[in-house]
Amino acid sequence: MADRMRQDERVAATREALLSAAERLFAERGVYAVANRQISEAAGQGNNAAVSYHFGTKVDLVRALVRRHAEQIEGIRTRLLAEIGDSVELRDWVACAVRPTTEHLEALGRPSWYARFIAQVTADPALYAIVTEEFSVTAPSMRVLKEGLNRCLPDLPAEVYAERSAMTRHLITQMSVERERALADNAPTSRATWHEAATGLIDAIVALWRAPVTRVP
C-alpha cells in the first residue's frame, strides 16, 4: 500500500511539473510552436514521451491546463456572486466578471503565465472551443452572471449584448496579459496591485456597457 501511495505521489508530481512547464512555454512561445519534447525537458523529465504518456495529445494537455485554473476561478466567482445576491447595480455584476480572473492571478504569485496562456489559446478557433467547453462544465456560475447583467440592461438589443460581452472578455484577457507580462519583466505597471487593476477595468467595462447604441440606417 505504501509503495502504491508513493507511486501515485510521483505520478502526480510529474503531471504537475509537466503542466507548469507547458503553461510557461505555451504562454511565451505559443501552443503550436512548442514540441512535447521541449515540455518534457523543461519539466526535468528524461523521457521525451512523458507528455503523451500522461496526457495524450497536445489538445488533451491544453484541456488539462484550462481545467487546472477553471475550477479555482469558478470558486472565486461563486463567492462574489453570493456576496452581491440580487443586486441591481451594474457595477456589482461587472465586478463578478473581472475579479475572479484578477484574484486568481494574484493568488498565483509572481511570475505567472496563466493570462498569457489563455490569450494564446483563445486566439485559436479550435482551442477556443476547448476553453468554451471546459468553462461550460466547470463554471455554472457564468449563467447566473449573465442573467444578472441582463437584468441590469433590459433594453440592450441582443446583438449589442453579445458584442459587448465579447469586448468585455477581450478587455479582461488582454489587460491581464499586459499586467502579467509587466510583472514578469519587472516593468512599471499603471496600478500597484491586481485589486487596483481590477477596479480600473471595472470602471472601463461599466462605461462600455452603458455606452449609447447608435442605430445604423
Automatic annotation (TrEMBL):
Residues 36-55 bind DNA. The keyword DNA-binding applies. This is Regulatory protein, tetR family. It comes from Streptomyces melanosporofaciens. Residues 12-73 form the HTH tetR-type domain. It comes from the Bacteria. Signal peptide: none annotated. SUPFAM superfamilies: Homeodomain-like.
